[in-house]
Amino acid sequence: MLSVQDLTVSVITGKTPLDITRNVSFELNKGEILGVVGESGCGKSMTALAIMGLLPKTTIAVRSGRVLLDDQEITHLEPHQRVDAGLSGISMIFQEPMTSLNPVMQIGDQIIEALLVHDRGNMRAPAARAKKLLDLVHIPDAAMQLKAYPHELSGGMRQRVMIAIALACNPQVLIADEPTTALDVTIQAEILSLLKELCEELSMAVLFITHNLGVVAQLADRVSVMYAGQIVETASVEVLFEHPVHPYTHGLFSCLPDPTKRSEPLQPIPGQAPLITEITDGCAFAPRCKFKTSACLSGSIDWTGISNGHKTRCHHPLKEQK
Amino acid sequence: MSSETILDVAGLRTTFHVKRANKKYALKAVDNVSFHLDKGEILGFVGETGCGKTTVGRSIIKLTKPEGGVVTFGGNNILNLTGRRLREVRLKVRMVFQDPYASLNPRRRIADSVAEAGDIHKLFNSPQDRLKQIAETLKRVGLDPSFADRFPHELSGGQRQRVGIARALLPIPGIIIADEPVSALDVSIQAQILNLLLDLRKRLNLAIIFISHDLSVVGQICDRIAVMYLGRVVEIGEAEELFNRPLHPYTQALIHAVPKPNPRLRIGKGMALGEPPSRFELKPGCTYADRCPLAEGVCLTDVPEIKTVKNAQMAACHKL
Ligand SMILES: Nc1ncnc2c1ncn2[C@@H]1O[C@H](COP(=O)(O)OP(=O)(O)OP(=O)(O)O)[C@@H](O)[C@H]1O
Ligand SMILES: Nc1ncnc2c1ncn2[C@@H]1O[C@H](COP(=O)(O)OP(=O)(O)OP(=O)(O)O)[C@@H](O)[C@H]1O
Ligand SMILES: [Mg+2]
Ligand SMILES: [Mg+2]
Q: Is the full-model pTM beyond 0.90?
């Protein structure tokens, strides 16, 4: 359904391009949920924007690689060209609601606008459909809140308005960038089961970007872990949680907060991730890795297969169980 | 830990007057909220989205104007202060905003946003001193000092969130009201920020109001937790007790719904709370009655007062 091949996204304002992501590849099948986790700043949102054709073209661009939707290349098509070509089946829930909601427009009108783009102007009872979408994402007083401006809503309500807008046009592929950070756990659970239903019933495919490993465990079929612009490990969700093999993935699991161990200090992974200007040959995680050898410091690190569907970019994948 | 109270909030009420379909409604976002915060204490606020957590935080320092209540800090009622004296309080009680993108000026460099409070109050000795303090503060939150020259749109979501935290730490205040400060951070950087806050509290007796939806984080670092539902505090108590033995049926539902980081323990369906009640036309009785499995009789007619149930744990429920 969605195929991303060797995607390299770069900042192009300087003399030499600086790569934000390097050779990101993955396949997303019909009805499937792929979870993406990774370090803050590793290029998850930029990958998502590149797939959507929404990169700020003058500063950041796709330098190489391709994005295919149903076998048709869409990498360099502008959003309006995609609509014209009938390839507009991808929607996105943006990480920060206020970046994409219009502050001076009532939310009902913003939802209707999204519906109109999809239905090319002719649509019956737009207000009723907008209200139904707000009901779908459990916003109380939906009929009245259609008239609310974004600043009159709480963080979690704004986030659900974004989800409603993304679902307005029945997407084939949904890219959800941290869609539940402002939701309490009970509403989060309802939104997650709504997404699951849409995947099962309408074969929608979801790329779900999140830092919440609990959410990944609850929702995803497969998981990819990103570090410094690259995918470093991919596996089915069961396998990844039981037997993570990349030292970075392993490090993530060891710093999960645990209220039953209040007295023990949290254990962040020592060191910092490299800036995109600092990335050199070899494994980007090597400076922080206790298993590194001289082989890790040069060349590019290729994929090592661990088991069926489980692979990692690491010369020394961990063997023991977590 | 000292048991000296640094902030006392009594009967805080904040109402938004909104117009919908030609009718005026008074939306009680914060309805009679009381609590205290001790020096060096971390008090967590959790609760349903839209229940009023952000409004409590903003009301305390009058970023949103409350309708009633008393907020005692340093011998004064903050709600009576204006002008210079209010600005001085806001230097000592700082807020980390929930939506980092909306709270950073897109046309200002990160350095200027981080130094804003220091600039307003003329706290830097020299331009060099200013740059040094900006760099140190950025490093504290795990950002390379080179970020100082960037604009907000050149950062990732989690990097912007850390700028939001850095802004509240220059200079280091007495109280931080942190509204979802780690929601966009990976668990390793999250652990680093939580350790930073714990360290500041230990060394400088910093007190923190920590608003978050992530109950594992709240359970890990907070001393006490307040649970809000529809504008009211429905339970408040020691973190460990509240986590292990929640009293209020809403707290129980919340803790049950925490997603476990284990794909073999999926919650699945059937835990939905049911339709959320209207914010605009509140029914009489307990606001949670509509969704509560225990609700009957008195729950539908009388609002339950918050009362001490055991030791230091308080809850607002007729059934306790
Ligand atoms: N205009 C720019 N100039 C230089 N660097 C940039 C620019 N825009 C983005 N970056 C960098 O690109 C990297 C990738 O950003 P991206 O938003 O994709 O991260 P992310 O994985 O979504 O992180 P988060 O989890 O924090 O949201 C970041 O390190 C960011 O600082
Ligand atoms: N400026 C405003 N005008 C009108 N109503 C508002 C305004 N700000 C907030 N509200 C309403 O007040 C209520 C409480 O909002 P608040 O932002 O405090 O919730 P919250 O607990 O922080 O939620 P979240 O967890 O989703 O961030 C909501 O019903 C919201 O719609
Ligand atoms: Mg992002
Ligand atoms: Mg809020």
A: yes
